[in-house]
Amino acid sequence: MPDKHSPLFAKLTALAAENPTFRDGARVISEHGKPPPLVALLAEIDNTVLERTLVFRVDNAVLRVAAAGRRLRSVIDITGAPDNALAGQMLSQDNPDMVNGISAFLAQLCKNAAQVTVQIMPATPIGSPSQAGISVKTLEAPADPATNALPDFLTPVADAVTATVQIVDGNITATSGQTAALEQIWRDQFDAFHNRQKAIFPQPDAPMLVCLDHALGQDKPAAIASIGNQVSVFAYDPARIGDIMTAWHSS
Amino acid sequence: MTMPHLDNLQDQHPACETLAFADLSTRMVLVSNTTTPLTREGLDALCAEAAMTFGPDDKPALGNTPSETVIIATAGQIRIYLRTIAAPQDALCCVCAPDVDMAAFVSDARACLKKISDAG
Q: Which residues of A touch B73 (CB under 8 A)?
């Protein structure tokens, strides 16, 4: 008698119960949120032991990834969605920024997706086998709290953000990266700025994003996003200001 | 000679509706583009926000180093303020739609500010 609580039994039972649907030759793994798109996508990676290229179609976006050993080794390329700086790089579990960046990217890509399909293709040679990639478990729960420190609008450009302080109802609730100078802005300058700004343009509680190009030093910008009872003070890559503005107005 | 520079910049970037050259030391808008829909009060508010956000040179309003570019985005509008550390009293105040090409606009606006400052 097999152990009914073993992972193998659960997997065999799930496989036996499957009645897959195909669209354009690709297997539908999530439809109308069932199962949740991100869960379905990560499950496919978790099911990939031998080196393979997985081609996910998430609504109109196509994401090709290299997976092996139940790990995401690389995002090979992305079409039909904003590009991500991590595309084409070998992914490493030892790099928190990378883990957070790719987790946030996948979460944003799958958010509200109506349909996700997958095609499993032969492996595309990429990197060396010693570059093990990121496990699904890590992608589900990033090691660094940076993602939690990000307001929703920054999720698509998480890789452009180098440090964040997240404040809710006046209390710092999460931080990531080097935050001493950012915390100083919040603690010593924000209230005075906010009150003066409201006196000039009285729009109580209207969402606002303020970016200053040298706030933390020459070519070291910082920004403050104020959305309802939440304030985020963050440092960012100056070359990505256009992407940050696009993300702000898309949210 | 300032207004043509502003009008040329707006021609290059139709997503920008208002351009105003201001003296931050007196908090006064000196000239704006021809077709700005803003009233004098609206232009004065832009200048006040620019002066307040940049802050005094020795005491930035936000951060620890004086900035040369400030971008303030709300739900449907972007206000962009530019100045140079060499002439910190001269500022260009801009109001743009969200679809403005930010990198190209800031680059062109900075060149425009330099032409105006140099001419003055």
A: 208-211, 245, 248-249
**CATH superfamily of the domain spanning A147-250:** Dynein light chain 2a, cytoplasmic (3.30.450.30)
Please indicate whether, in this complex, the C-beta atoms of B61 and A242 are within 8 angstroms of each other. Answer: no
Binary contact (B74, A249; C-beta < 8 A): no
Residue ranges and CATH numbers for the domains of chain B are: 2-99+112-119 (3.30.450.30)
The residues facing A212 across adjacent strands are A222, B70
Task: Provide the strand spans (E) within A126-229.
Answer: 134-135, 161-168, 171-176, 208-212, 222-227
Element (H, E) at A10: helix A7-17
Residue type, A43: A
Contact A82, A68 (CB under 8 A): no
- Chain B nearest-CA distance from A212, in A, is 5
Q: Which residues in chain B are contacts of A181 at CB distance < 8 A?
A: 63-64
pLDDT in tens, A81-100: 876 777 888 888 887 778 87
From residue B45, alpha-carbon distances to A40, A189, A210 in Å are 51, 21, 16
pLDDT for position B28: 92
Residue type (1 letter), B48: A
List CB contacts of A77: < 8 A, sequence separation 6 or more: A63, A64, A87, A88
